Amino acid sequence: MNKINIKDLGPEELEDFVINLGEKSYRATQLGKWIYKRGVSSFDKMTDLSKDFRASLSQAATISSLKMIEERISFDGTKKYIFGLFDGNRIESVLIPENGRNTLCISAQVGCALGCTFCLTGRVGRIRNLKTSEILDQFLEVNNRNNGSVTNIVFMGMGEPLDNLENTVKALKTFTHPDFIGFSPKRITVSTSGIVPKIRELGKQISVNLSVSLNAPTDELRNEIMPINKKYPIRELIEESARFPVPRRKTLTFEYVLINGVNDSDEDARKLGDLLMGVRCKVNLIPFNEAYPLPYKSPPDERVFGFQKVLLSYGLHVRIRKNRGRDILGACGQLAADYPLNNKRAYKFSNQVKED
Ligand code: SAH
Ligand code: SF4
Questions:
Q1: Where are the chain's structural domains?
Q2: 77, CA 20 to 30 Å: which among 99, 149, 213, 242?
Q3: Does domain 4-62 have CATH number 2.30.38.10?
Q4: Domain 67-355: top CATH class
Q5: Which of 257, 296, 319 to mutate to test the pocket of ligand 1 (most atoms within 8 A of CB)?
Q6: pLDDT in tens, 77-94
Q7: What is the pLDDT of residue 289?
Q8: Which of 193, 225, 257, 288 has the most ligand 2 atoms within 8 A of CB, as the residue to mutate?
């Protein structure tokens, strides 16, 4: 019999699981505390559970963890972690210290199916969804290695979290459940390229921060650099995002990657300003991070400031996101965990691997 990894169960499923083993539902809370609060990975050590229950747990389940295979440290203090998965795949997480915060950027998938032209993960193509445990373990392992210092979690690593909605939601529920990891939903951000119905679905299940990667002010340009836009055009995306239930005193964010000569003119900024006027939101400008073999360039600093200036004149809150960890390929859009990017056969192969 294949054993279940307890961390693949969301809080509700864990209750069903213990009930199926003949126990009361509150045992799920005890289990969650042992695993997530105390970091215990053996049922034997859970001394407030009966011997019989511990034996049946050992028969039916395991508590296994991801293997961290490498830590790379940037000159700016950013750290990139590479994890080896059970099937030989690899994923990356990035820890970014800034202004007293320690933000962990985690992955939701191996590769990504959505093929944005400016993103290295998009080049890898779809390989598979991460399991709930694989999402959680990125946090648990990095937080542990850094003495519990992670203050914020952002789903901005490899993959599209809303293309792996079920496991993302289960992970979010475990992150935020007070008896499990107990992380404040105000300190968690899900970033999406804009799968509109999934944004609605996520909002029905949980309230966390939402960041939408807009990256172009018109459908014409967005269709070109983010193919998902052909299915869910900009206006629909903005309307749905504006309805998303972010936590109290928090605001919806739009991300805009500035690519030299592609989407960074004053004209583009004005179109973006018109589009976002009246929407309660913040805008984060991200200068494009170059990485071979992506065909684009970063804009000069003056262009980034010029673009920001136009948006500010619309009364928008606009920040420029610093590029961190570029030297270790740890910045936005640079995560590919050594997957082949140019080899057509490897690319095709990676698209054919079945989801588990
Ligand atoms: N799939 C999700 C989350 C992962 S991408 C999404 O698209 O939102 C996280 C962020 O990195 C997105 O805002 C994306 O637009 C940005 N990004 C992708 N490639 C980039 C690059 N080469 N330089 C700068 N930002 C990039
Ligand atoms: Fe996927 Fe996001 Fe990269 Fe687009 S930007 S390819 S959605 S990871």
A1: 4-62, 67-355
A2: 213
A3: no
A4: alpha beta
A5: 257
A6: 999 999 999 999 999 999
A7: 92
A8: 193
